Amino acid sequence: MKMQTFFEETLATLKEIGLYRHLRTLESSPTPHALLDGKRVLLFSSNNYLGLSNHPKVIEAAVQATRDYGTGGTASRLISGNLKLYTILEEKIARFKGSEAAVTFSSGYAANLGTLQALLGPGDLALIDKLNHASLIDGCRLSGARLRTYRHKDMGLLKAHLERSDSKRKTLIVTDGIFSMDGDLAPLPEMAALAEQYGAMLMVDDAHATGVWGEGGRGTVHFFKGDHENVIQMGTFSKALGSLGGFVAGSRALIDFLVNEARSLVYSTALPPSVLAASNAALTVLEGEPELLRNFWKKVNFFKEGLQEMGYDLMGSQTHILPIRIGDHPQATEFAKALFDEGLFAPAIRPPTVPKGTSRIRLTPMATHTQEDLEQALDILKRVGRKFGVIH
Length: 392
Ligand SMILES: *Cc1c(COP(=O)(O)O)cnc(C)c1O
Prior knowledge:
The chain has 392 residues and is α/β, with parallel strands linked by helices. Helix content is 44%, strand content 16%. The strands form 3 sheets. It has a 7-stranded mixed β-sheet, sandwiched between helices. It is globular, with a radius of gyration of 21 Å. It binds pyridoxal-5'-phosphate. Pyridoxal-5'-phosphate binds at residues 107-109, 112, 133, 135, 176, 180, 205, 207-208, 236, 238, 246. Residues 107-109, 112, 133, 135, 176, 180, 205, 207-208, 236, 238, 246 line the site of pyridoxal-5'-phosphate.
């Protein structure tokens, strides 16, 4: 088959079934009043939860680091890319997570791929929640381990898989801490108990929890008062912390092992100085300005209650990620378009990101939304929701 034909046919099929994706252009910073595809909209789809990506101290730190060290990462960390800024950041994030040590990767995606591929090999077993983030599934696949999925948060099925596992091989249970498209929490205390009972490792992806969930934003393991040293805690600097990069926190031995074995760390260029300095500054701001978090949760709770009062089905969300259930993907696409026309941007989340028939609009308030922004967004959601018969 000619390559060009293959591309065109694939794209035509995606369009036909309503699952074609295209890139929108953001022409402003990711603040509540963003300029998207030439239109001013209320932005409800950014993970810039605390506005740290635009915080003056974070920006200043990034600018200063660029002046001091230049723009590029310039080599792998194992060659000559391991700036002192990495050491400062990793000590800080380890302290923040209550772990012995931590290591940073170029992105959360790279952290999951590198860590899972290093931890597991053919013959090992990976136990995966059906709704886990794609990067966790990809990492497990890349490792060559056997994959077994269990129904979302079904601890009975997880236990059944563990009972059948080979105790001479490695077994890893891996889960989102806060599920990225549903906004609910993994039952970590039960999972940790099962991991302990069956001698399995437990890895928690706190991409959406880092910076906002648990005391001081320390994440879900902290929230459940879990045993930090026995859990492999992964997180990102790219969401609430407003920068870029992924990290893994855990025992010193785990971290040294990853520095040696994680291919996405060994064979990729270090992060640029500006990014490391921004992550550092974001953690400092988070610890020094606790009102930022309080304000964020006040906004989230107001918005969430508003949606619930209107009768929206929030799909069991327990956190700041607020999905509203629409159902079929063509209707979700139409719904998102109607919101956009009214001046609110929150995209439709469709398969394969979420299971068929559960397409949704995923709303994420930010600390920087004003009361007026939130009320205006609720007004729009009321009008559009009624028009589509999603609420009454
Ligand atoms: C966003 C996300 C990632 C990937 O992190 P990036 O820093 O964006 O590469 C991994 N896991 C989960 C659950 C996420 O939501």
